[in-house]
Each structure stands twice: as C-alpha cells, then as structure tokens.
Amino acid sequence: MSKDREFLWRRLHSLLGIIPVGLFLTMHLFINFTATGGAESYNDATAVMEKIPFLIIVEWIVIYIPLMFHAFYGVFIAFTATPNTGRFSTYRNWMFSLQRFTGVFLVIFIAWHIFQTRIQKALGAHVDYDMMANIVANPFMLGFYIVGILSATFHLSNGLWAFLVSWGIVQSPQSQKIATYVTNIIFVILSVVGVAAILAFV
Q: Which of 20, 39, 128, 181 is spaced 20 to 30 A from 174 at the CA atom?
C-alpha cells in the first residue's frame, strides 16, 4: 500500500470512528440509559427508533458498513502500528496501546452483542427490556458487558483525541493537553451513563 493511499485510509478510519460510529455509540448509550427509568421507559425509547423509515437500510449505511470498515482496518492497524516513543509521552503511548487493545476486544464484544440482539431479532425475537434483563442475569455476561461498555467509551474518547491531533485541529502541546482533559471527561460521563444503563437491567 502506497503512503498516500495509507494516509487516506487512516483518515477515513479516523473520521468514521467519530462520525457516524462514535455518534451512534453515544446515542445508543443514552437510549439504553432510559432503562434506569424502568422497563416501560426503555421500551418506549427503543420503539421510537424502530419506527425510523427504511430502518434496515439506514442501519447498514449509517452503522454496519462504517463500523465494519473501522473495525477491520482498525485490527490491521493494531497489529502493524508501533508506539511513537519519540513524539509522544509515556502516558500517550500507554493510551496508544490501550486503544489498540480495546479495539481488538471490541470487535469480539460488538459481534457478540449484535448476535444476541439484532440477529435474534431477525430470527423472530423481540428486542426489549426483558431481552437485555435475561442476557445480564448471567453474572459472566454482566461482567462482559461492563468491560465492553468501558472499552467502547475509552476507545471513543481516546480516539477523539487522536482524531483532533491527526486532523490538525489541536497542534500545540497546550491544546493537546486541554484536549486530553476534555476527552477524559467525556470518557467518565459516557462510562457512568453506560454502566448505569446496563446495571438498570439487573
């Protein structure tokens, strides 16, 4: 792969990780958070999403295709990239490694989550509060989902920092430091929302 083509693929990978994948993840977490208000609240929120016209086409164009590209190319990056110890701090290189680790884990987690929900829906199951409650009634699955949620929120927030840097939006050391604080806050907020949501099904 030529350097120019690789540069473009990495830019596309970075962009799709934020728009639409990152936006969808954020929306998904907040919809799930409605479960803290009870089964009726959650079922009402998901019912609204199910009424989107041409839903299956929208899901493939907005979610599945961008997600698959981001996931598969991300795995390629994870197994070929090396930390840039000369340019970034030890902290940033730890974040680099965690980004790759969570990315690989998320490929497994998301595939399993889709199997337990969307594929089961295609086979005739009803995706609702009771479905999720039955899934996380298993302590192992509850732990698996919590780790998956935290991996997703970290991957998004740290990926947002990398996006801001790689696209030249934040360039100076000071602006990158501020971006670190902001993205860490985003990680905490989304993690609280996500974990509270999954625990609401217990």
A: 20
Residues 6+ apart with CB under 8 A from 100: 77, 78, 81
**Overall average pLDDT of the 50-77 stretch:** 94
* Inter-residue contact 163 to 14 (CB < 8 Å): yes
Contacts for 56 with CB less than 8 Å, ≥ 6 apart: none
The fraction of the chain above a pLDDT of 70, given in percent, is: 97
Q: How far apart are CA 82 and CA 189, in angstroms?
A: 30
Provide the token pair at 83: 């930390």
Distance from C-alpha of 121 to C-alpha of 190, rounded to nearest angstrom: 26
CA 175 to chain centre: 24
Nearest to 161 by CA among 18, 13, 62, 16: 18
- pLDDT tens for 110-123 read 999 999 999 999 99
The candidate with the shortest Cα–Cα distance to 102, out of 114, 110, 91, is 110
Place of tokens 């730890």: 94
Please enumerate in sequence order all residues whose Cβ is within 8 A of that of 95, keeping only pairs 6 or more positions apart, or say none.
Answer: 158, 161
Beta carbons of 165 and 195 less than 8 angstroms apart = no
Question: Residue 83 — pLDDT band, cuts 50, 70, 90?
Answer: low
**Dist CA 73 CA 77 (whole Å):** 6
